[in-house]
Structures are given as C-alpha cells and as structure tokens.
Amino acid sequence: MDRRCLIVAEDPDLLDALLRLAAAADMDTQRAADAADARRAWARAPVVLLDRAGAARCGAAGFPRRESVVTVVSGEPEAEDWRAAVALGADRVVQLPHGEAGLAGMLADVRERAGAGSRPGRVLTVVGGSGGAGASVLATAVAVAAARAGSAALLVDCDPLGGGLDLLVGLEQEDGLRWPELAVGDGRVRAASLHAALPRATAGRAVLSVLSCARSPHGPEPAAVTAVLDAGRRAGGTVICDLPRYPTDAAIAALGTADLTVLLIPSALRASAAAARVAEVLAEHARHVELVVRGPSPGGITPDQVAASLGLPLLLAMRPQRDLAAALERGRTPGSGRGPLAAAAHTVHERLHTAGAPARAAS
C-alpha cells in the first residue's frame, strides 16, 4: 500500500486546508490533477480526500467503492454531496473548518495504521489471581519478549496500589511521563508521541516503553487507558497491561479492549479459592481469558486440576525460577535472562498473536 494521502480537490482554500491537515498528521500527499491521475492511486492510497468537484469527477468516472474516503465541503453539505459520497463508499462528509479536529484525528489514525503495515497490534492484560501471584513480573517479562521479537512494546501500569512498574524495571529516577502527567484531550493519543514521552527500559537489545502509575492511590481514568491501548494497537505494537485484582473502572476498560487476558495464580489451594472470585469478574468483562499456573505446588495440586476448578483453559504451567526474588531486588529486569520466566513470557507472547484459537497448554 502507498503511504501517501490522495487529494482530489479544485477549491484552492479547501486544498490548502487539506494539505495543512495532512502535514500535521505527518502524512505525505499526492494531488491528482484529473480523474486519470486519481485512478492510478485510488486503490493504493491509505486515505482519499475529495472536495465537491473531485467527488463528482471520481463518481462520473465510475471509480469503485473503497474504504477511507472523505468528502470535504466548505459549507453545509448538500444532497448531491451525500449521493456522491455514498456512490464512492465515503466514510463521511466533513464540513470545514468545523470538522477540522475530527478530520485531523482520522488522518493521524490512518497514518499510524499505514506505518504499521499488515502487522496487527495486540493488547494483553495480566491479572494476579491472588496476592503475590507475580502478575507484574510476568507482564514485564512478556513486554521484554515482545520487544525482543521486534515489536514496539508498551508496558502499561493500571494498578495504582502496586507501587509503580517503573520501580520494577529500575526507572523510578528516569525522566518521562507517568499517568498523572499524561493528558488525553480529545481521546486520541499518537503512539509515536507516547513512546517518545515515556521512560524506556532496556533488557539487552530489547527496549520497551513504560507507562507507570505514580506513588499515589489515584490511578488512570478509563478513557485515558482506552486511548493509550488503542494508540498502541493502531500502530501495530504490543501493549501489555498489569491490572489489579479488584475491578477498577480503568481495569474494566482495559479488559474490554484486550485480545487476551492471562490470569496468573500459584498452584496452591488458597490461591485457587481467591482466583475463583477474580475469574468471576474476568468472565463478566474480558473477551478471552486463559490461565497460567505457577509452581511449585506445596499440596500436590496439578495445573490441570486448578484449571478444571476455575473452568478456564490452561495456557501453561510455569516452573519456579530459582533466585528470582533476589534478582529482582538487585534490579534485574524480569524476563531479561534465561529460565522459566523468560520461557513462559515467550509462550504468552506467542499465544497473544493467535488469541481466538484453542489453547494448547505448555509446561
């Protein structure tokens, strides 16, 4: 697909406005002088912008319907504008200057999708089934696995009482935005701008952006969480959210957006009992939930038994990792080395990109 915006416009004022809006969205443009020029780029352009005359010319030339076509007018849309828009498959008829903000946001979205190419963005939420399950550690390790796989990895902290993921990855002294400083004005966030504004953690050659809660009891707003997750998905990146066990509004927003939710629990009787309550919440709000069971099992409960008791598919049984707590205290980023944690994170990351197909448990 061509990444240039196709503009077919004769009105000089509208043409100037469209060129300005495309430039603000960091989109290159190509202007078609006539229907023949427009036809050559019609199918390839990520978005087509037409004024009234351009829509009439393309319609008269019998151009096929396609997505991401916008007709732009300077006054109130007339009946003929709507007929031409429908004939070409236009998504909307925008009146300028009143509709500039909406059109600018739409162009920014198209620009990010075009930059992502055919790679679908993915969103994962990780929830601990009991206290101390290790959800933050697993979420961070999956983000490292995503970054190692070449994805634009974004680790998002949605647990305001968790102490801050920036502490877990050694970024507490680094500059960059945390949730309290992130302003989402019109409900849109550009992924490139977001990554540039956040502190970044490194694990070998892997680099991931981290949006952490601050050391306060106030977490992010649901609309802000949705905007951040949507931005990461539009840009073709991988977004991993660490969620609290209790259903905050922000957590519910993330669950509804995620392609896959992982419930992590230790292989213990009391942890399974606690996880049953969490699973009820997830069943109400999440699209797709799978289980990761972390060993060892002091009472001999098997991962399959835990999964059966919760009525959830078992994604994997995770072996315990020696000296993990000590490594974390020394500042080592979770999942940065080898071992059961990194292996589990790799499996979860792979599963995220096939979510919707039946799970095959790994051990």
Automatic annotation (TrEMBL):
Gene3D superfamilies: P-loop containing nucleotide triphosphate hydrolases. GO terms for biological process: negative regulation of cell division. SUPFAM superfamilies: CheY-like, P-loop containing nucleoside triphosphate hydrolases. InterPro entries: CheY-like_superfamily (IPR011006), P-loop_NTPase (IPR027417), ParA/MinD_ATPase (IPR050625), Rv3660c (IPR022521), Rv3660c_N (IPR059050). Keywords: ATP-binding, Helicase, Hydrolase, Nucleotide-binding. It holds the Pfam family Rv3660c_N. The keyword ATP-binding applies. GO terms for molecular function: ATP binding; ATP hydrolysis activity; helicase activity. Residues 8-115 form the Rv3660c-like CheY-like N-terminal domain. GO terms for cellular component: cytoplasmic side of plasma membrane; cytosol. This is Helicase/secretion neighborhood CpaE-like protein. The lineage of its organism: Bacteria, Bacillati, Actinomycetota, Actinomycetes, Pseudonocardiales.
